[in-house]
Amino acid sequence: MAKVIIIGAGGVGSVVAHKCAQLPDVFNEIVLASRTESKCKAIAADLPRPVKTAQIDADDVAATTALLKAEQPDLVINVALPYQDLAIMDACLAAGVDYLDTANYEPPEEAKFEYKWQWAYQDKFTSAGRMALLGSGFDPGVTNVYTAYLKKHYLDEIHYLDIIDCNDGDHGQPFATNFNPEINIREVTANGRYWSNGDWQETGPLEENRSFDFPAGIGPKQIYLMYHEELESITKHLPEIKRARFWMTFSDNYLKHLEVLGNIGMTSIEPVEFEGKEIIPLQFLKALLPDPASLGPLTKGKTCIGCIARGVKDGVEKTYYIYNICDHEECYAEVKSQAISYTTGVPAMIGAKMMLERKWAGAGVWNMEQLDPDPFMEDLNKYGLPWQVVELNEQTGMED
Ligand code: NDP
Protein backbone atom coordinates (compact mmCIF):
# COMPACT_ATOMS: atom_id res chain seq x y z
CA MET A 1 0.00 0.00 0.00
CA ALA A 2 1.67 3.18 -1.07
CA LYS A 3 1.06 6.74 -2.11
CA VAL A 4 2.61 8.42 -5.15
CA ILE A 5 2.67 11.95 -6.52
CA ILE A 6 2.90 12.15 -10.29
CA ILE A 7 4.28 15.53 -11.40
CA GLY A 8 3.46 16.49 -15.01
CA ALA A 9 0.15 16.14 -16.80
CA GLY A 10 1.27 15.87 -20.42
CA GLY A 11 1.16 12.83 -22.72
CA VAL A 12 3.36 10.72 -20.45
CA GLY A 13 1.76 11.91 -17.19
CA SER A 14 -1.63 10.85 -18.49
CA VAL A 15 -0.42 7.30 -19.26
CA VAL A 16 1.33 7.01 -15.88
CA ALA A 17 -1.86 8.12 -14.12
CA HIS A 18 -3.95 5.57 -16.05
CA LYS A 19 -1.53 2.70 -15.47
CA CYS A 20 -1.08 3.46 -11.74
CA ALA A 21 -4.86 3.79 -11.35
CA GLN A 22 -5.24 0.29 -12.85
CA LEU A 23 -3.18 -1.15 -9.94
CA PRO A 24 -4.88 -0.05 -6.71
CA ASP A 25 -3.08 -2.73 -4.69
CA VAL A 26 0.28 -1.13 -5.45
CA PHE A 27 -0.69 2.51 -5.95
CA ASN A 28 -3.14 2.89 -3.16
CA GLU A 29 -3.28 6.68 -3.32
CA ILE A 30 -2.39 8.88 -6.29
CA VAL A 31 -1.94 12.64 -6.48
CA LEU A 32 -1.56 14.16 -9.94
CA ALA A 33 0.14 17.57 -9.78
CA SER A 34 1.26 19.90 -12.55
CA ARG A 35 1.74 23.52 -13.51
CA THR A 36 -1.74 23.67 -15.08
CA GLU A 37 -4.12 21.92 -12.71
CA SER A 38 -6.98 21.87 -15.24
CA LYS A 39 -4.93 19.32 -17.25
CA CYS A 40 -4.67 17.13 -14.14
CA LYS A 41 -8.41 17.38 -13.59
CA ALA A 42 -9.14 16.45 -17.22
CA ILE A 43 -6.96 13.32 -16.88
CA ALA A 44 -8.45 12.49 -13.47
CA ALA A 45 -11.98 12.63 -14.93
CA ASP A 46 -11.03 9.76 -17.26
CA LEU A 47 -9.52 7.44 -14.67
CA PRO A 48 -11.20 4.32 -13.30
CA ARG A 49 -10.99 5.61 -9.68
CA PRO A 50 -10.73 8.98 -7.95
CA VAL A 51 -7.32 10.64 -7.72
CA LYS A 52 -6.46 13.93 -6.09
CA THR A 53 -5.04 16.78 -8.19
CA ALA A 54 -2.83 19.74 -7.26
CA GLN A 55 -1.26 22.81 -8.83
CA ILE A 56 2.52 22.99 -8.58
CA ASP A 57 5.31 24.89 -10.28
CA ALA A 58 8.04 22.29 -9.89
CA ASP A 59 10.77 24.87 -10.58
CA ASP A 60 9.89 26.24 -7.15
CA VAL A 61 11.71 23.92 -4.72
CA ALA A 62 10.07 25.41 -1.61
CA ALA A 63 6.55 25.01 -3.03
CA THR A 64 7.24 21.42 -4.14
CA THR A 65 8.78 20.59 -0.76
CA ALA A 66 5.67 21.99 0.96
CA LEU A 67 3.40 19.89 -1.27
CA LEU A 68 5.44 16.75 -0.53
CA LYS A 69 5.44 17.44 3.21
CA ALA A 70 1.68 17.98 3.17
CA GLU A 71 0.89 14.88 1.08
CA GLN A 72 3.64 12.60 2.45
CA PRO A 73 3.91 10.31 -0.58
CA ASP A 74 6.32 7.35 -0.70
CA LEU A 75 7.54 8.32 -4.16
CA VAL A 76 7.50 11.15 -6.69
CA ILE A 77 7.11 10.11 -10.32
CA ASN A 78 8.55 13.06 -12.23
CA VAL A 79 7.10 13.24 -15.75
CA ALA A 80 7.28 17.01 -16.08
CA LEU A 81 10.11 18.25 -18.30
CA PRO A 82 13.86 17.52 -17.94
CA TYR A 83 14.38 21.13 -16.78
CA GLN A 84 12.59 20.32 -13.50
CA ASP A 85 14.63 17.22 -12.54
CA LEU A 86 17.09 18.86 -10.14
CA ALA A 87 14.48 21.06 -8.46
CA ILE A 88 12.26 18.02 -7.86
CA MET A 89 15.25 15.99 -6.59
CA ASP A 90 16.02 18.82 -4.14
CA ALA A 91 12.41 18.85 -2.96
CA CYS A 92 12.46 15.05 -2.51
CA LEU A 93 15.60 15.32 -0.37
CA ALA A 94 14.09 18.13 1.70
CA ALA A 95 10.86 16.20 2.28
CA GLY A 96 12.41 12.71 2.58
CA VAL A 97 10.73 11.12 -0.44
CA ASP A 98 12.06 8.71 -3.11
CA TYR A 99 12.34 9.96 -6.71
CA LEU A 100 11.89 8.60 -10.25
CA ASP A 101 12.10 10.28 -13.68
CA THR A 102 12.17 9.37 -17.37
CA ALA A 103 14.67 11.86 -18.81
CA ASN A 104 18.01 13.33 -17.71
CA TYR A 105 18.22 16.88 -16.35
CA GLU A 106 18.66 19.50 -19.06
CA PRO A 107 19.84 23.03 -18.40
CA PRO A 108 17.30 25.20 -20.27
CA GLU A 109 19.95 27.26 -22.07
CA GLU A 110 21.94 24.42 -23.69
CA ALA A 111 21.16 20.95 -25.04
CA LYS A 112 23.50 18.53 -23.27
CA PHE A 113 21.80 15.19 -22.58
CA GLU A 114 24.28 14.38 -19.82
CA TYR A 115 23.83 12.66 -16.47
CA LYS A 116 26.58 14.56 -14.65
CA TRP A 117 24.22 16.92 -12.81
CA GLN A 118 22.07 14.10 -11.50
CA TRP A 119 24.97 11.76 -10.73
CA ALA A 120 26.33 14.58 -8.57
CA TYR A 121 23.36 13.90 -6.23
CA GLN A 122 24.73 10.44 -5.37
CA ASP A 123 26.10 11.41 -1.95
CA LYS A 124 23.07 13.48 -1.03
CA PHE A 125 20.64 10.62 -1.76
CA THR A 126 22.90 8.05 -0.12
CA SER A 127 23.30 10.01 3.08
CA ALA A 128 19.58 10.80 3.18
CA GLY A 129 18.85 7.06 2.79
CA ARG A 130 16.64 7.81 -0.23
CA MET A 131 16.52 6.27 -3.70
CA ALA A 132 16.47 8.12 -7.03
CA LEU A 133 15.79 6.06 -10.15
CA LEU A 134 16.83 7.84 -13.34
CA GLY A 135 15.42 7.33 -16.81
CA SER A 136 12.56 4.88 -16.26
CA GLY A 137 10.93 5.41 -19.66
CA PHE A 138 11.48 3.33 -22.80
CA ASP A 139 14.66 4.85 -24.15
CA PRO A 140 16.24 5.50 -21.72
CA GLY A 141 14.64 2.92 -19.48
CA VAL A 142 13.54 -0.32 -21.08
CA THR A 143 16.54 -0.22 -23.43
CA ASN A 144 18.87 -0.14 -20.38
CA VAL A 145 16.97 -3.04 -18.81
CA TYR A 146 17.04 -4.99 -22.11
CA THR A 147 20.83 -4.58 -22.15
CA ALA A 148 21.13 -5.77 -18.54
CA TYR A 149 18.83 -8.72 -19.32
CA LEU A 150 20.89 -9.86 -22.33
CA LYS A 151 24.02 -9.57 -20.23
CA LYS A 152 22.45 -11.57 -17.40
CA HIS A 153 20.94 -14.38 -19.46
CA TYR A 154 22.39 -14.49 -22.96
CA LEU A 155 25.91 -13.08 -23.17
CA ASP A 156 28.92 -13.23 -20.86
CA GLU A 157 30.16 -9.97 -22.36
CA ILE A 158 28.48 -7.44 -24.65
CA HIS A 159 30.93 -5.92 -27.12
CA TYR A 160 28.69 -4.11 -29.61
CA LEU A 161 25.35 -2.52 -28.79
CA ASP A 162 22.91 -0.84 -31.17
CA ILE A 163 19.71 0.64 -29.75
CA ILE A 164 17.19 1.14 -32.54
CA ASP A 165 14.00 3.16 -32.13
CA CYS A 166 11.43 2.95 -34.92
CA ASN A 167 8.16 4.81 -35.00
CA ASP A 168 6.24 3.58 -38.01
CA GLY A 169 3.14 5.50 -36.93
CA ASP A 170 1.33 8.00 -39.12
CA HIS A 171 -0.69 10.85 -37.57
CA GLY A 172 -1.68 12.43 -40.87
CA GLN A 173 -0.36 15.90 -39.83
CA PRO A 174 2.07 17.77 -42.10
CA PHE A 175 4.55 18.15 -39.21
CA ALA A 176 4.24 17.23 -35.55
CA THR A 177 6.46 15.70 -32.91
CA ASN A 178 5.08 12.82 -30.93
CA PHE A 179 6.40 13.97 -27.60
CA ASN A 180 7.24 17.41 -26.23
CA PRO A 181 8.36 19.30 -29.40
CA GLU A 182 11.02 21.32 -27.62
CA ILE A 183 12.76 18.27 -26.16
CA ASN A 184 12.28 16.25 -29.33
CA ILE A 185 13.73 18.89 -31.65
CA ARG A 186 16.63 19.66 -29.29
CA GLU A 187 17.50 15.98 -29.37
CA VAL A 188 17.22 15.54 -33.12
CA THR A 189 19.11 18.69 -34.13
CA ALA A 190 22.03 18.00 -31.78
CA ASN A 191 25.23 16.41 -33.11
CA GLY A 192 25.28 12.62 -33.26
CA ARG A 193 27.64 10.85 -30.89
CA TYR A 194 28.52 7.22 -30.24
CA TRP A 195 30.87 5.25 -28.02
CA SER A 196 33.83 3.62 -29.71
CA ASN A 197 36.77 1.94 -27.96
CA GLY A 198 36.70 4.03 -24.81
CA ASP A 199 35.87 7.39 -26.36
CA TRP A 200 33.04 9.41 -27.91
CA GLN A 201 32.97 9.89 -31.68
CA GLU A 202 30.96 12.81 -32.99
CA THR A 203 28.96 13.09 -36.23
CA GLY A 204 26.91 15.95 -37.66
CA PRO A 205 23.18 15.95 -36.82
CA LEU A 206 21.59 12.86 -38.48
CA GLU A 207 24.65 12.60 -40.74
CA GLU A 208 25.09 8.84 -40.50
CA ASN A 209 22.23 6.66 -41.69
CA ARG A 210 21.48 3.28 -43.18
CA SER A 211 18.57 0.94 -43.83
CA PHE A 212 17.38 -1.57 -41.24
CA ASP A 213 14.79 -4.28 -41.78
CA PHE A 214 12.31 -4.19 -38.87
CA PRO A 215 10.17 -7.15 -37.74
CA ALA A 216 6.37 -7.40 -37.41
CA GLY A 217 5.65 -6.34 -40.97
CA ILE A 218 7.26 -2.91 -40.56
CA GLY A 219 10.00 -3.78 -43.05
CA PRO A 220 13.07 -1.78 -44.12
CA LYS A 221 13.36 1.81 -42.89
CA GLN A 222 16.09 4.41 -42.88
CA ILE A 223 17.65 4.79 -39.42
CA TYR A 224 19.72 7.80 -38.29
CA LEU A 225 22.52 7.85 -35.73
CA MET A 226 21.83 10.20 -32.81
CA TYR A 227 23.18 10.72 -29.36
CA HIS A 228 20.91 9.41 -26.63
CA GLU A 229 21.49 9.65 -22.92
CA GLU A 230 21.39 5.93 -22.11
CA LEU A 231 24.65 5.50 -24.05
CA GLU A 232 26.42 7.43 -21.29
CA SER A 233 25.16 5.34 -18.39
CA ILE A 234 25.25 1.95 -20.15
CA THR A 235 28.87 2.36 -21.25
CA LYS A 236 29.79 3.54 -17.75
CA HIS A 237 28.17 0.53 -16.08
CA LEU A 238 29.15 -2.06 -18.72
CA PRO A 239 32.73 -0.97 -19.51
CA GLU A 240 33.31 -4.10 -21.64
CA ILE A 241 31.23 -2.49 -24.42
CA LYS A 242 33.50 -1.52 -27.30
CA ARG A 243 30.91 0.31 -29.36
CA ALA A 244 27.45 1.61 -28.48
CA ARG A 245 25.20 3.52 -30.85
CA PHE A 246 21.64 4.82 -30.89
CA TRP A 247 19.51 5.03 -34.04
CA MET A 248 16.08 6.42 -34.78
CA THR A 249 13.79 6.34 -37.83
CA PHE A 250 12.48 9.56 -39.36
CA SER A 251 10.23 9.97 -42.36
CA ASP A 252 11.48 12.01 -45.31
CA ASN A 253 8.60 14.40 -44.67
CA TYR A 254 9.66 14.99 -41.04
CA LEU A 255 13.26 15.59 -42.11
CA LYS A 256 12.24 18.00 -44.86
CA HIS A 257 10.23 20.15 -42.43
CA LEU A 258 12.98 20.02 -39.85
CA GLU A 259 15.60 21.12 -42.38
CA VAL A 260 13.55 24.14 -43.46
CA LEU A 261 12.74 25.10 -39.86
CA GLY A 262 16.42 24.75 -38.96
CA ASN A 263 17.56 26.82 -41.96
CA ILE A 264 15.35 29.73 -40.96
CA GLY A 265 16.38 29.58 -37.30
CA MET A 266 13.11 28.28 -35.86
CA THR A 267 14.73 25.36 -34.02
CA SER A 268 17.29 27.51 -32.22
CA ILE A 269 17.40 27.76 -28.42
CA GLU A 270 19.31 31.08 -28.59
CA PRO A 271 17.01 33.91 -27.47
CA VAL A 272 16.10 36.55 -30.07
CA GLU A 273 14.47 39.91 -29.52
CA PHE A 274 11.00 40.27 -31.01
CA GLU A 275 8.91 43.42 -30.53
CA GLY A 276 10.88 44.36 -27.45
CA LYS A 277 10.59 40.94 -25.86
CA GLU A 278 13.11 38.10 -25.75
CA ILE A 279 11.77 34.88 -27.20
CA ILE A 280 13.34 31.50 -27.83
CA PRO A 281 12.50 30.42 -31.38
CA LEU A 282 12.09 26.75 -30.44
CA GLN A 283 9.64 27.61 -27.66
CA PHE A 284 7.66 29.77 -30.09
CA LEU A 285 7.64 26.88 -32.59
CA LYS A 286 6.32 24.58 -29.85
CA ALA A 287 3.37 26.91 -29.39
CA LEU A 288 2.52 26.56 -33.10
CA LEU A 289 2.86 22.79 -33.42
CA PRO A 290 0.12 20.30 -32.57
CA ASP A 291 0.03 19.28 -28.91
CA PRO A 292 1.46 15.72 -28.89
CA ALA A 293 -1.53 14.65 -26.77
CA SER A 294 -3.84 15.64 -29.65
CA LEU A 295 -2.17 13.06 -31.92
CA GLY A 296 -3.50 10.14 -29.88
CA PRO A 297 -6.75 9.55 -31.73
CA LEU A 298 -5.09 10.23 -35.12
CA THR A 299 -2.05 7.94 -35.02
CA LYS A 300 -2.05 4.55 -36.72
CA GLY A 301 0.75 2.01 -37.06
CA LYS A 302 3.38 0.54 -34.78
CA THR A 303 6.53 1.33 -32.87
CA CYS A 304 9.44 -1.09 -32.58
CA ILE A 305 12.16 -0.23 -30.08
CA GLY A 306 14.92 -2.63 -29.20
CA CYS A 307 18.58 -3.48 -28.77
CA ILE A 308 20.92 -5.56 -30.88
CA ALA A 309 23.78 -6.87 -28.77
CA ARG A 310 26.77 -8.77 -30.12
CA GLY A 311 29.17 -10.39 -27.74
CA VAL A 312 30.41 -13.74 -26.49
CA LYS A 313 28.81 -16.62 -24.65
CA ASP A 314 31.09 -19.45 -23.52
CA GLY A 315 33.74 -18.15 -25.90
CA VAL A 316 31.41 -18.19 -28.95
CA GLU A 317 30.32 -14.98 -30.70
CA LYS A 318 26.53 -14.46 -30.60
CA THR A 319 24.13 -11.70 -31.63
CA TYR A 320 20.70 -11.13 -30.05
CA TYR A 321 17.89 -8.74 -30.88
CA ILE A 322 15.44 -7.89 -28.12
CA TYR A 323 12.47 -5.65 -28.91
CA ASN A 324 8.91 -4.59 -28.24
CA ILE A 325 6.22 -3.90 -30.81
CA CYS A 326 3.54 -1.44 -29.73
CA ASP A 327 0.43 -0.48 -31.69
CA HIS A 328 -0.67 3.18 -31.57
CA GLU A 329 -4.38 2.43 -31.92
CA GLU A 330 -4.36 -0.27 -29.23
CA CYS A 331 -2.67 2.18 -26.83
CA TYR A 332 -5.29 4.79 -27.57
CA ALA A 333 -8.10 2.29 -26.98
CA GLU A 334 -6.63 1.46 -23.56
CA VAL A 335 -5.48 4.81 -22.14
CA LYS A 336 -6.34 7.47 -24.77
CA SER A 337 -2.68 8.08 -25.71
CA GLN A 338 -0.53 7.12 -28.67
CA ALA A 339 2.32 4.63 -28.38
CA ILE A 340 5.12 7.16 -27.73
CA SER A 341 3.53 8.34 -24.49
CA TYR A 342 2.44 4.77 -23.73
CA THR A 343 5.89 3.24 -24.17
CA THR A 344 7.27 5.89 -21.77
CA GLY A 345 4.46 5.89 -19.21
CA VAL A 346 4.22 2.12 -18.73
CA PRO A 347 7.92 1.72 -17.76
CA ALA A 348 7.60 4.73 -15.44
CA MET A 349 4.74 2.94 -13.67
CA ILE A 350 6.72 -0.33 -13.57
CA GLY A 351 9.86 1.41 -12.22
CA ALA A 352 7.70 2.95 -9.50
CA LYS A 353 6.16 -0.45 -8.77
CA MET A 354 9.65 -2.00 -8.47
CA MET A 355 10.59 0.64 -5.90
CA LEU A 356 7.38 0.46 -3.90
CA GLU A 357 7.51 -3.36 -3.78
CA ARG A 358 11.19 -3.09 -2.73
CA LYS A 359 12.23 -5.31 -5.66
CA TRP A 360 14.50 -2.41 -6.54
CA ALA A 361 15.82 -0.76 -3.42
CA GLY A 362 18.90 1.04 -2.17
CA ALA A 363 19.95 4.51 -1.16
CA GLY A 364 21.56 6.62 -3.87
CA VAL A 365 21.09 7.54 -7.52
CA TRP A 366 20.54 4.60 -9.87
CA ASN A 367 20.38 4.00 -13.60
CA MET A 368 18.13 1.19 -14.76
CA GLU A 369 20.89 -1.18 -15.96
CA GLN A 370 22.32 -1.33 -12.42
CA LEU A 371 19.27 -3.15 -11.05
CA ASP A 372 18.04 -6.74 -11.46
CA PRO A 373 16.27 -6.80 -14.84
CA ASP A 374 14.13 -9.89 -14.19
CA PRO A 375 11.16 -8.52 -12.20
CA PHE A 376 10.96 -5.47 -14.47
CA MET A 377 11.00 -7.65 -17.61
CA GLU A 378 8.25 -9.83 -16.13
CA ASP A 379 6.09 -6.77 -15.54
CA LEU A 380 6.66 -5.44 -19.06
CA ASN A 381 4.97 -8.60 -20.32
CA LYS A 382 2.11 -8.20 -17.84
CA TYR A 383 1.36 -4.51 -18.23
CA GLY A 384 1.29 -3.85 -21.94
CA LEU A 385 4.82 -3.93 -23.37
CA PRO A 386 5.59 -7.58 -24.24
CA TRP A 387 9.04 -8.25 -25.63
CA GLN A 388 10.88 -10.96 -27.47
CA VAL A 389 14.47 -12.04 -27.91
CA VAL A 390 15.72 -13.57 -31.16
CA GLU A 391 19.15 -14.81 -32.03
CA LEU A 392 20.43 -13.28 -35.26
CA ASN A 393 22.54 -15.69 -37.25
CA GLU A 394 22.79 -13.72 -40.46
CA GLN A 395 24.30 -10.31 -41.20
CA THR A 396 22.06 -7.62 -39.68
CA GLY A 397 23.54 -4.64 -41.49
CA MET A 398 24.73 -3.28 -38.13
CA GLU A 399 28.14 -4.98 -38.09
CA ASP A 400 30.16 -1.95 -39.15
P1 NDP B 1 4.49 17.21 -22.25
O1 NDP B 1 5.05 18.49 -22.74
O2 NDP B 1 3.30 16.61 -22.94
O3 NDP B 1 4.10 17.36 -20.70
C1 NDP B 1 4.92 17.97 -19.76
C2 NDP B 1 4.09 18.28 -18.53
O4 NDP B 1 4.95 18.84 -17.54
C3 NDP B 1 2.98 19.30 -18.80
O5 NDP B 1 1.83 18.93 -18.10
C4 NDP B 1 3.58 20.58 -18.23
O6 NDP B 1 2.66 21.52 -17.73
C5 NDP B 1 4.34 20.02 -17.05
N1 NDP B 1 5.32 21.00 -16.61
C6 NDP B 1 6.21 21.69 -17.35
N2 NDP B 1 6.91 22.54 -16.58
C7 NDP B 1 6.45 22.34 -15.32
C8 NDP B 1 6.77 22.94 -14.07
N3 NDP B 1 7.70 23.89 -13.96
N4 NDP B 1 6.10 22.51 -12.99
C9 NDP B 1 5.14 21.56 -13.07
N5 NDP B 1 4.80 20.98 -14.22
C10 NDP B 1 5.44 21.37 -15.34
O7 NDP B 1 5.70 16.18 -22.23
P2 NDP B 1 5.62 14.58 -22.30
O8 NDP B 1 4.52 14.09 -21.42
O9 NDP B 1 5.67 14.15 -23.71
O10 NDP B 1 7.03 14.18 -21.65
C11 NDP B 1 7.20 14.14 -20.24
C12 NDP B 1 8.62 13.70 -19.92
O11 NDP B 1 8.87 12.41 -20.45
C13 NDP B 1 9.71 14.62 -20.51
O12 NDP B 1 10.72 14.78 -19.55
C14 NDP B 1 10.24 13.83 -21.67
O13 NDP B 1 11.58 14.16 -21.97
C15 NDP B 1 10.12 12.42 -21.12
N6 NDP B 1 10.11 11.38 -22.17
C16 NDP B 1 10.90 10.28 -21.98
C17 NDP B 1 10.92 9.27 -22.92
C18 NDP B 1 11.69 8.01 -22.66
O14 NDP B 1 11.52 7.03 -23.39
N7 NDP B 1 12.54 7.93 -21.67
C19 NDP B 1 10.16 9.37 -24.19
C20 NDP B 1 9.29 10.52 -24.24
C21 NDP B 1 9.30 11.51 -23.28
P3 NDP B 1 1.83 22.54 -18.69
O15 NDP B 1 0.70 21.72 -19.14
O16 NDP B 1 1.46 23.67 -17.80
O17 NDP B 1 2.77 22.93 -19.81
TrEMBL record:
SUPFAM superfamilies on file: NAD(P)-binding Rossmann-fold domains
Classification via InterPro entries: NAD(P)-bd_dom_sf (IPR036291), Sacchrp_dh-like_C (IPR032095), Sacchrp_dh_NADP-bd (IPR005097)
Saccharopine dehydrogenase NADP binding domain segment(s): 4-133
Pfam families tied to this protein: Sacchrp_dh_C, Sacchrp_dh_NADP
Saccharopine dehydrogenase-like C-terminal domain residues: 137-385
Signal peptide start and end residues: none
Name of the molecule in the record: Saccharopine dehydrogenase family protein
Originating species: Gilvimarinus gilvus
Taxonomic placement: Bacteria, Pseudomonadati, Pseudomonadota, Gammaproteobacteria, Cellvibrionales
